[in-house]
Write a structure and sequence with these properties.
With about 650 residues, this protein is α+β, with helices and mostly antiparallel strands. It has four domains: about 60 residues, no CATH class; about 190 residues, no CATH class; about 170 residues, no CATH class; about 140 residues, Bacterial OB-fold (OB fold (Dihydrolipoamide Acetyltransferase, E2P), Beta Barrel). About 40% of the residues lie in helices and about 15% in strands. It is built from 26 helices and 15 strands. Strand 11 and strand 12 form a beta hairpin. It is globular, with a radius of gyration of 30 Å. The two termini are about 35 Å apart.
Length: about 650
């Protein structure tokens, strides 16, 4: 055992296995095989360097990390959709980068689905900093990062920015305070605080007289594992250099703590500027071409901070209708439908001699693609769309079953029916589901087109040919959408549940009308949970009701007491105090519980049939139970 323990100590900290950087590349003036050990990757035509990134850096290789940003694909697809409608794509390098209408939406915190500025923390910060140009957006991207947060830069920057804004309104010059006059030049643009990695090196050179070599060594330490330990090793050099320039040890210590905080990760200015530019371009596209933007946003998921469910409701708040998949209208992925206000779309009915008219009042909408359906692969959706394009619209469910690819399973067709994908055939969804049972074999058998042809010719005797099926109720449609698509295109669950929710709840739309420190009770569908390691045990829960988002802050002791509900429940009820600060609203949680509905005896006739005999569709308990099962999982960090 002693020998085993000795061996364990010797190998502690060594790599356990090879881990490949997803986008790292090194460049050399000579063939790499001559100067560094290489090996073949599991991926064809790819070679791995056996040194880690730090060793490559020590050897002075040029190392470049390629970021695979989904937003770039989203922007490209949005531009292509615009070009298909207008005939030419917008040149995003020549748009107005000072468009105040775009900045108005950003400053209002309307940034869901935008690049880098959509998170809970970013929305709260945007309402305080109110960016008005690209430089401000670069600051916004950089400030909500562990480096500036741990370094204590956030609140001083916000206060100084507000003071600067007031001074400009009064026509006065504003000189931001700095920890030492030697730092005025390098920290002037960020109002006296360190926000960028570049400024860390500039501060060390300006205050402590670091040489270029010392600054480079500090930069390399900043980017490595255990970087805090490595950076703290520079304290003596920093203190001595600062003393030679007349800086007291207390001031040197204060500044050095801000420097060491960047071991927690921060952005270089170039990185923040590039991300800020992309953030503005995404905001500009959404402002002027929202339907194309949301179509591209849906097609490039998973990406960002929000689920498709939350993104779909945000689209609705911007006047964009999300239309469910329809077998005669949907493509493989989401597409833009533009229907004039008086244009009528003809869809074939169940009988070939009849047609049903559907008038779409919305001039622009996003039609969800067939590949979004559960049990539908991209290949299957492509085959169905290709068959429709070659041989015309599907005229009935039987026609669809006959012409569909053999891989299209019974489950897949049932899922299509459940969410209205066959509504154009002129029958209720329950009638269509009954037909599925007639024309398709049991789920464990292979589907045979010959069987389908035979079944369609089989006469049905009384009483089956006159069976009448009711349509689905709104709550049944809602649950079906969650089960099949993972999101609800028809609205928020609370639109159906509001009458059965606990009394005394405050809607997210009414929080702004209340006074600071008011007692509130809120409830919602959990969108995201965060427990950042820099937050000292605090947990942040973002919930959504039918009016918008609610941000709750849970103290460590409350989290430990109510963690089962916080971590496991998709619907939460929270009681606490309202905190209002510079336009941001937070609920400081005092109690967190799983959401419960009131008993039927305590309710009015909400959801009851005219005779009061039974519930239409599901009762509140069944609805909440099904929603708990099928609601999308929230995004969780920490």
């Amino acid at each position: 055992w002693r020998e085993l323990c000795d061996l364990a100590e010797e190998i502690a900290g060594l790599p356990r296995h090879i881990s490949q950087h997803v986008g790292g590349m090194i460049i050399s003036s000579r063939p790499l095989v001559e100067i560094v050990p290489l090996e073949l990757s599991a991926m064809p035509d790819r070679v791995i360097c056996q040194w880690d990134k730090d060793s490559c850096d020590d050897a002075r290789f040029i190392k470049i990390d390629f970021l695979a940003l989904g937003m770039l694909s989203l922007v490209e697809e949005t531009v292509e959709l615009i070009a298909s409608r207008e005939g030419k794509p917008p040149d995003l390098s020549r748009i107005d980068f000072n468009d105040q209408a775009v900045y108005d939406r950003i400053c209002a915190g309307d940034t869901v689905g935008l690049f880098q500025i959509e998170s809970r923390a970013q929305i709260q910060m945007i309402r305080r900093t109110r960016p008005r140009n690209l430089e401000d957006l670069a600051v916004e991207v950089a400030i909500v990062r562990p480096g500036p947060i741990v370094g204590g830069a956030v609140n001083p920057y916000v206060r100084r920015r507000e003071a600067q804004r007031r001074a400009q309104q009064q026509g006065r010059r504003y000189d931001p305070p700095v920890d030492h006059p030697l730092l005025k030049e390098c920290l002037g643009e960020t109002l006296g605080v360190i926000l960028y990695q570049d400024q860390v090196l500039q501060v060390c050179q300006a205050l402590a007289g670091f040489t270029a070599g010392q600054a480079e060594a500090l930069r390399r330490a900043m980017s490595r594992r255990r970087s805090r330990e490595l950076m703290e090793g520079f304290w003596q050099e920093f203190k001595d250099g600062a003393a030679q320039r007349g800086v007291s040890e207390a001031v040197a210590k204060q500044v050095f703590e801000q420097v060491v905080a960047f071991s927690e990760f921060g952005f270089p200015k170039s990185h923040a500027a590039a991300f800020g530019l992309l953030a503005y371009q995404s905001a500009w596209l959404r402002h002027y071409y929202p339907v194309e933007y949301y179509a591209g946003l849906f097609n490039n998921q998973p990406m960002g901070f929000y689920s498709l469910d939350a993104l779909g409701r945000d689209a609705g708040r911007h006047g964009i209708e999300i239309r469910l998949p329809e077998v005669n209208l949907s493509d493989v992925y989401c597409t833009v439908e533009r229907v004039d206000e008086h244009e009528t779309l003809f869809v074939c009915g169940a009988r070939e001699t009849a047609a049903r008219e559907e008038t779409y009042p919305c001039p622009s909408a996003v039609r969800v693609g067939l590949a979004f359906l559960r049990e539908w692969s991209e290949e299957t959706a492509e085959q169905v769309v290709l068959e429709r394009e070659r041989n015309g619209l599907f005229r009935s469910l039987g026609d669809l079953v006959r012409r569909a690819p053999p891989k299209l399973s019974r489950d897949a067709i049932e899922h299509l029916v459940w969410v209205g994908g066959c509504d154009g055939f002129g029958l209720t969804r329950r009638e269509l589901l009954w037909q599925v049972g007639l024309w398709l074999p049991p789920k464990h058998e292979q589907r045979d087109p010959a069987r389908v042809r035979h079944q369609l010719e089989l006469p049905l005797n009384h009483p089956y040919e006159h069976l009448a099926f009711s349509g689905l109720e709104a709550d049944e449609r809602l649950v079906a959408e969650y089960e099949v698509l993972g999101f609800a295109a028809g609205g928020h669950p609370f639109q159906l549940m509001r009458g059965s929710l606990p009394p005394g709840l405050t809607s997210s739309g009414d929080l702004g009308k209340l006074e600071h420190d008011s007692h509130v009770e809120v409830a919602g569908l959990v969108v995201a949970r965060q427990r950042p390691h820099t937050a000292k045990g605090f947990v942040f829960v973002l919930m959504e009701d039918e009016a918008g988002m609610v941000n709750a802050i849970v103290r460590p002791e409350i989290y430990e007491r109510d963690r089962v509900a916080i971590r496991g429940e998709p619907f939460l009820w929270i009681s606490g105090k309202l905190a209002k600060d510079d336009g941001s609203l937070n609920v400081i949680a005092e109690e967190v519980r799983a959401l419960k509905v009131r008993s039927p005896a305590a309710l009015t006739t909400w959801g009851m049939e005219g005779d009061g005999g039974r519930w239409k569709g599901m009762n509140p308990y069944s609805l909440l139970k099904n929603l708990r099962r099928w609601a999308p999982d929230p995004k969780s960090w920490g």
